[in-house]
Amino acid sequence: MGSYAIVKASGRQFWIEENRFYDLNKLPLQAGDTFTLNQILLVKQNNKLELGKPFLEDKYIVEATVLRHLSGSKTRVYKMRPKKKTRKTFGFRAKLTRIYINSICNISTPTPICYL
């Protein structure tokens, strides 16, 4: 396994690796846009592990590209009141954004960053 990072994005924590794609909650970006993630909790590169307290925002950034927007798998909710003959079925599909991780970069100077 090569380098990896644990980042905080869309209210969740993700274990990410370079040249892979991940599904986050819908982001207000267009397909093809590139952005950076800076809320990095942990980075492992070249057998060197660095922990943030709480983040490594001044040392590392993660560059990502938006591939497309999609809907997640359907979650079905069934409600029934016994002995009352009332039944309801609801469905929900989460709106997601698929992103591609370009690189996990070590930086020396801070740059403008997108907080998600």
From TrEMBL:
GO terms for molecular function: rRNA binding; structural constituent of ribosome. Keywords: Chloroplast, Plastid, Ribonucleoprotein, Ribosomal protein, RNA-binding, rRNA-binding. One of its GO terms (cellular component) is chloroplast. It comes from the Eukaryota. GO terms for biological process: translation. InterPro entries: bL21-like, bL21-like_sf, Ribosomal_bL21. It is found in: Plastid, Chloroplast. Pfam families: Ribosomal_L21p (PF00829). This protein binds to 23S rRNA. PANTHER family: 50S RIBOSOMAL PROTEIN L21 (PTHR21349), LARGE RIBOSOMAL SUBUNIT PROTEIN BL21C (PTHR21349:SF7). Part of the 50S ribosomal subunit. Belongs to the bacterial ribosomal protein bL21 family. This is Large ribosomal subunit protein bL21c. It comes from Phaeocystis globosa.
